[in-house]
Amino acid sequence: MPATDDSVASLPPLSLYVHIPWCVQKCPYCDFNSHNLKGGLPESEYISHLLDDLTQDLPLVTIDGEMREVSTIFIGGGTPSLLSVAGMQRLIDGIAARIPLSPSAEITMEANPGTVEADKFIGFEKAGINRISVGVQSFDEQHLKALGRIHDSTQATSAIELAKRLPLRSFNLDLMHGLPNQSVEDAMQDLHKAIALAPPHLSWYQLTIEPNTSFYSKPPTLPDDDILWEIQERGHQILSAAGYEQYEISAYAKKGQQCQHNLNYWRFGDYLGIGCGAHGKITRMAKQMPKRAEQDAAANTNIVPEYEILRTVKVKHPKGYMDLTRSYMDKVIPVESDDLAFEFFMNRFRIMEACPKAEFTKNTGRELSSIELQHLKKAESMKLITSNTEEWQLTDTGKRYLNSLLDLFV
């Protein structure tokens, strides 16, 4: 049964992230924890470990013998659509048997158009997936090749058309811009093709070169800053005219079609992370950690001692993760008081909706100090945010210079 204590209701919503670490081929721009599939997929073994991992995490979300309820699940990777339908069914059934799921839980699975056949999409939906995120990235064959994608534009279109025919709650189309040697017109052509497929949700984000990627070792020629800005400006206008609302820095959605899982991240909600290298963020109440609460109270810190926030990290490599001689948990890190403001605003200012000022104390367990107020006033003077007695709001300038805004809290 889900926890029903009134104090539990004051905690942020709880989500679950599930990581599937394998891909047919790792893309040269990808810095996620993914590994080329060599030989057969160890599906049954890995799913057993995922479910055991979840079982080991349950004490983190159990209060007075009752578990908190999960409101969203996101199965990411890697390439989760490599799993068989039977494997996906076992995974979702196993999760539901271990932790309470909201009757209206959003359950998202990432899919690569090159690893999905019609029967699998239909089977995934029957297994409980009610939202699919299709990693298209581009409809241009040359750009797909440069990005190391294993699908072509025909497969991408077919995958989206299939998603449209399924009785899903929603689906997302992932599209990138700022690709190697991409012109403004190339980017707009991609965007027009995506909009023509009428996805309820469209993630539209700029390619960035990250450390520990093939592109970082051998950087491709990317569009200059002026072209990138023109792509973003024209793209935003096109998406807005097509009825899409920008609700997050890199995400657009039709009315009522925002990704609830991502919104919980950016609102500084809680989430368990299971699977290789998965991260989690959990708020624990004082009754779950009496020693820490006593220490904070004795030290007279400005942390409200009703709860603390933990970051969790699982063992990264599949071989180590599936080693029965060790724990799945690699690190459990309490978020220090001095870091809470940066972590809260780093997430909260990614979304376009206004941020109620009361939300800071509710979701961090501490009052706004003179330091945070000073940073916020500076952000306001730089026209990165606006403020009134009730809330903060990101400005258009703040959207463009988000990193500068977040740097104020470091």
TrEMBL record:
GO terms for biological process: porphyrin-containing compound biosynthetic process. It holds the Pfam family Radical_SAM. It is found in: Cytoplasm. Residues 8-245 form the Radical SAM core domain. GO terms for cellular component: cytoplasm. SUPFAM superfamilies: Radical SAM enzymes (SSF102114). Keywords: 4Fe-4S, Chaperone, Cytoplasm, Heme, Iron, Iron-sulfur, Metal-binding, S-adenosyl-L-methionine. Probably acts as a heme chaperone, transferring heme to an unknown acceptor. Binds one molecule of heme per monomer, possibly covalently. Binds 1 [4Fe-4S] cluster. The cluster is coordinated with 3 cysteines and an exchangeable S-adenosyl-L-methionine. Belongs to the anaerobic coproporphyrinogen-III oxidase family. HemW subfamily. This is Heme chaperone HemW. It comes from Glaciecola nitratireducens (strain JCM 12485 / KCTC 12276 / FR1064). The lineage of its organism: Bacteria, Pseudomonadati, Pseudomonadota, Gammaproteobacteria, Alteromonadales.
